[in-house]
User: Fold SoxAX cytochrome complex subunit A from Roseobacter ponti.
Amino acid sequence: MRISIGIATVITFAAGVGLAQDSKSLVIEGEEMVTETAAPDHMESVKTIYSGWRFRSEETQDLETDDFDNPGMVFVDQAIDLWETAQGSEGKSCSSCHENVEDFAGLRPTLPKVKDGELVTMEELVNECRTDRMGADAWKWSGGQMTAMTALIGLQSRGMPVDVAIDGEAAAFWEQGKELYYTPVGQLQMSCSNCHEDNYGVMIRADHLSQGQINGFPTYRLKNTKMNSSHGRFKGCMKNIRAEPYNEGGPEFKALELYLASRGQGLSVETPSVRN
Ligand code: HEC
Ligand code: HEC
Assistant:
């Protein structure tokens, strides 16, 4: 196999031009978010954790402060319609069984979590209802309907601190996620940590590197003008380092999701966040 690494694929960090995160506070619709807090004990080389919001440009940041300006809210509105729409052989909608979507407040910060010995994500809980309880097709992991629905459900917990369990039955999944986070992959032999732990705050090409937190997912990206799942983002980062990405919804990305969530313990859920 011929491996060629062109100029464009060589990753360079703009050393010395580190702008770090800014010191602004994020207030959404009058509610103050925690975008900076002490790192959890399990993080050995990072003292303080920051939301990705703190690394974005002022114009991008502003879009998240007001729901009227937040382009992700269009998708939340679509999910409100979906919530009421009967689909599948049972003729049921989400609202047939779950009276108010507000009842899901508190769910987002705890996911992914172990249920019956399996690590489950928000997408899987939604699809379980669709296939097993509605007789409907599963939604695609990063498809428009799924990301709209996970944004609507996540929004009910906006402002609550990320709080995933990493002990007990979750421990083995967490260890797997940690291993993946620190393992160099791809032609460029880089790991998630090389960028998001060792170099956050510096510029990489035209982008300001954050800690790669997932407290704002699913997130609206200006780049593709849609909602993006966390697994979709992991995939993009792996492609950028010329690695073969794992599957969305596969065991590797689910474990990585748990591990990344645990690196953001205490940050506010910002769903739906806005990023470039
Ligand atoms: C036929 C009834 C029914 C329908 C229709 C239904 N659900 Fe559910 N849903 C349930 C039941 C029962 C549970 C399990 C509750 C539990 O475990 O405590 C559940 C669990 C969930 C959970 C996980 C809650 C938790 O705390 O772990 C989510 C999220 C969810 N449903 C979303 C949806 C969405 C979105 C739709 C529509 C696409 C939907 N459900 C349609 C009955 C239904
Ligand atoms: C070559 C550097 C690089 C590597 C390696 C890398 N990323 Fe990223 N990642 C980026 C850049 C650049 C961005 C966009 C700016 C930012 O938010 O950091 C980004 C963004 C993200 C975000 C979005 C953060 C937010 O606030 O919305 C997540 C999550 C993420 N990366 C996870 C990962 C994971 C998981 C891995 C390992 C599989 C990884 N990244 C590997 C460069 C990298």
About this structure: The chain has a mean pLDDT of 94. The pocket of heme C (ligand 1) is lined by residues 92, 94, 96-98, 104, 107, 125-126, 129-130, 133-134, 149, 153 (CB under 6 Å).
